[in-house]
Amino acid sequence: MMKKLALTTALGALVAGAGYAQGIDVKLGVLNDRSGVYADLSGEGSVVAARMAVEDFKAADKGLNVEIISADHQNKPDIGSSIANRWYDEEGVNAILDVPTSSVALAVADITAEKNGVLIDSGAGSTALTREQCRPTTIHWTYDTAALANGTGAAMTNAGGKKWFFLTADYAFGHSLQENTAAVVEENGGEVLGTVDVPFPANDFSSFLLQAQGSGADVIGLANAGGDTVNAIKQASEFGITQAGQKLAALLFFVTDVHALGAQTAQGLSLTEAFYWDQNDTTRAWSKRFMDTHGAQPTMVQAGVYSGTMAYLAAVEAVGSTDGKAVAAKMKETEIDDPLFGKVTVRGDGRAIHDMYLFEVKSPDQSTGEWDLYNQISTISGEDAFLPMLDECDFTKQ
Amino acid sequence: MFELLGISPQVLLGQLLLGLINGSFYAVLSLGLAVIFGLLNIINFAHGALYMAGAFVAWMLLHYLGIGYWPSLILAPLIVGAFGIVLERTMLSRLYHLDHLYGLLLTFGLALIIQGLFRHYYGVSGLPYRIPDILSGGHNLGFMFLPNYRAWVVVASVLVCFGTWFTIEKTRLGAYLRAATENPALVSAFGINVPLLIMLTYGFGVALAGFAGVLAAPIYSVNPNMGADLIIVVFAVVVIGGMGSILGAIVTGYMLGIIEGLTRVFYPEGSAVVIFVIMAIVLLIKPEGLFGRTA
């Protein structure tokens, strides 16, 4: 009797799982920086983007009861880890979204694998997420340091900037960005004259800029992000470095940073992004909705949270459960046609492959509005932008 | 000798000068802290937040009212100082009879609230503030390009530091102030309004933070976290100089700016911690600080 009952239950579960995702509870945790240097490029805007995804996916109509919670990891791996543990163990979170700051993202990726959740990372840059520390439950959505290097690094070297000097933020992300860019520079016939590791976060870059100036490099590569990059660019202009002919490469720079710096100071900078609000009618319409709620244009990180959430929910619906490994595997099987990122495929290692774009910041007289900041220079196909997959990280074969 | 260290004299001179510029900020900020601690016995943890407020007030004056840099250099510290006086009257004055720790906790809480408010309304990306036209550009000194604005920062900070030191140590008003800290009851018996004196002193210390904020606005990113990063370093400067010592705060501020600048050449990774290493050493060898009077 017991056996029969168990069999019926199992069968019932199987049937329910196959077709419909009736009444599945999905809890998503947006874990990012809500008060520090990355709060504007991720922060509450990422939560807004996740909510828009749930709305656009029409989750409720498809039988998914989606709840979104959020927390501030303060860019500290220990804080991020303890939140992730609590979310999975006590609060029943199924997937963690965004997680900028590579050191935190790497810690959360491990916890996620252990607890069988899914990490859909949009904000972090380190390639280690899908290489040295790849996990079956990690999806790296928006960008990584290799893609940035292949965009900005290659473009500037080919435009004649052969000699490079790096100012590197002294943590996982900065080093990763510098190594990737240096490799691209050398591949394209350039050379690296020197680097200096700058403690993070830093206020005053004048000493480091002067060292870079003294090196005689053509290009000063800024392997940092957020307020650090803003400070470095502001001060480079103040010390007459850009006026004297040395070029700055902002290797990771977001539309919110350009907005903060103003077109006057930022004009002419080249940078690589996966998304810009003013690319086509769809991105403009979506960004307008975002702007109406959030009061600023979306960054590529926030757009990535939207797209990643859409893809995750579709996979949960298809699988019929929130089992981390199963959902991640499903995401890797599916061809995704995303409204913001276009054609996206998620590779076996969890790397989402999509086009990246090289932009140049407009001069003040070209810019027609406060957020009219970029000219698109070129498109870099996903295959060219991202590093090839490592065999040991291809989880579809394991 | 310079070549032995693997560095040319030009680079070294340049870095010394840059250190001096950063030291100017440390000096003005630690001076404010030292004045407040020396005369009120309050460990003012809100100092960084008020420095940030100074930069923001300058931005607001420009953005909303079209008031430029030079008037802001006077107006913003006055506004921040007035705000400080409100804090002193409504909250801090109730804590004078308690342990230092209560003042520290209160001002720490205030700092978090002030930063949180600015973050809520202005975000963390920062706001642009331009260098005034008359100070834009710079001069080539042979060993480095010195932006005019940075030269002005050094001059302004030296003037303010000297003025403050002179007032407190050498004038009659300063003598009243110092007497009022030693023995408030006796000084008020001479007909001096001690609470007023203390209130104005706090306002002045805070105005110094606001002044440093305006000085910083054109060269650093004006954002709500700008003071939070700096305040810990400035506290270390005050501890090294000797808590409450006016001269100690000034001299140590410039000195540590220079030491930090040199560390950025020889061992850049260590430049964020060098000041704290020095603090640890000073505390071990001379716990009252380099210029402190023995407690």
TrEMBL record, chain A:
Pfam families named in the record? Peripla_BP_6
User: Which keywords label this protein?
Assistant: Amino-acid transport, Signal, Transport
Entry's Gene Ontology BP terms: amino acid transport
As given in the record, the signal peptide range reads: 1-21
Keyword Transport present in the record's keywords: the answer is: yes
Q: Where is the Leucine-binding protein domain?
A: 26-362
Q: Which domain of life is it from?
A: Bacteria
SUPFAM superfamilies assigned to the protein according to its UniProt record, in alphabetical order: Periplasmic binding protein-like I
Which InterPro entries does the UniProt entry name for this protein? BCAA_transport, Leu-bd, Peripla_BP_I
Family assignment from sequence similarity: Belongs to the leucine-binding protein family.
Its protein name is ABC transporter permease
UniProtKB/TrEMBL annotation, chain B:
Q: Which domain of life is it from?
A: Bacteria
Which GO molecular function terms does the record list? Answer: transmembrane transporter activity
Q: Where are the transmembrane segments?
A: 12-35, 42-62, 68-87, 99-118, 149-168, 196-219, 231-254, 266-285
**InterPro entries from the UniProt entry:** ABC_transp_permease, BCAA_transport_permease
Q: Where in the cell is it found?
A: Cell membrane
- Cellular component per GO? plasma membrane
UniProt key word Cell membrane: yes
UniProt key word Transmembrane helix:
yes
Q: What is this protein called?
A: Branched-chain amino acid ABC transporter permease
What Pfam families does UniProt report for this protein, alphabetically? BPD_transp_2 (PF02653)
Gene Ontology terms: biological process: amino acid transport
